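Reviewer 2 asked us to include a model.

Predict the structure of this chain.
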Amino acid sequence: MNEAIFAQLQKEMDQSVGALRKELAKLRTGRASTALLEHVVVEYYGAHTPLNQLATLSAPDPHLLVIQPFDRSAMGDIEKAILKSDLGLTPNNDGKIIRVPIPQLTEERRKELVKHVKRIAEEFRVSIRSHRRDAVERLKEAEKKKEITADDFKHGQDRIQKITDEFIGRIEKIIKAKEEEVMEV
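Predicted model (structure tokens):
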């Protein structure tokens, strides 16, 4: 059997699950996480620089992020970048560090976030199914070229479906955990 097809399928699906985790880490859940600020880009001396390259980020408690810039002259730029981001956060600058309080989410906002999480999950389920379709096509191609038998093709399809089910299950676990985190008060 053509093991390369299955190895490639697992690699692609692993990448999709990793991308899902990254995407969900950006969502604000009412709990402080430095991942919230990882996609914030600061205009620093005319260059667009990721915030985590300009400062140390920490979450000392569940409702506070602390940003300690390496260069204090960048504090104003960092504040502007956070305000411009679509996170809805208001930074407080004391001259040495920037504190970003994470306000509690309203019940309505939590429900909106859960819907958003479900939309994201569906996009990644579609991605997984797309990888499955591609793998089946590669199997069909191998059968056409007489590299595998019809029985091998059938067994290969079953194996591809098992791998797909495993990854869809992983996505479901991740989504369930994120939904619980969002709804947590």
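The first strand starts at residue 41 and ends at 44. The beta strands are 41-44, 47-50, 55-61, 64-69, 92-93, 98-101. We have added this to the supplementary material.
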